[in-house]
Amino acid sequence: MSNKLQELTEKLYNEGLSKGKEEGEQLLARAHDEADKLLADARQQAADIVAAAEKQAEDLRDKTASDLKMASAQCLQATKKDIENLLVGAVSAAPVEKTLSDPDFLKKIITSVAERFNASEATDLALVLPASLQKELEPWLKGELAKALGREVKADFSKKVAGGFSIGPKDGSWFVSLTDDTFKDLIAEYLRPVTRKLLFG
User: Fold this and answer.
1) pLDDT in tens, 141-158
2) What CATH number is associated with residue 132?
3) Is 42 contained in some domain?
């Protein structure tokens, strides 16, 4: 009886041990599977983060390269424009200023323009002239020009005008400007394309 009890006890023990071992192995296998899955997920997340960072870096590099290209093109264009303006200014400024500050030249041009006005419409004229030429031109305006036109011409002498003149009806409805600035701008418009071609092809 004692032997049978011992055999039964051993049998139960061995079956329990075997079953526990089997369950333990299953739990261990499941834990390994879960650990592998977590590791795979972590690796995938790390790969996604690296890929996103690389894409961001590439986008930033492309944007920076594009911005640099645009900035350098704008800088080159602005530099070309500055060089062009300097050259056009140097070529046109001195001769224009000298010519439009010559009292004899101004007298001829003003007379010619004023006579055209006088012939087309009987209107009182007003002039704006350089303040620096007031001594030379004022007596001529009141004498010779008034006599040639048969009427007095109103003249203002302005420090804002370095050379040349503006002329128009006394009521100010319109005027013709041939100052050094307007003449330089006019010449510059013709010189710019030629200068640009000579400088930059």
Assistant:
1) 888 888 887 777 788 888
2) 3.30.2320.30
3) no
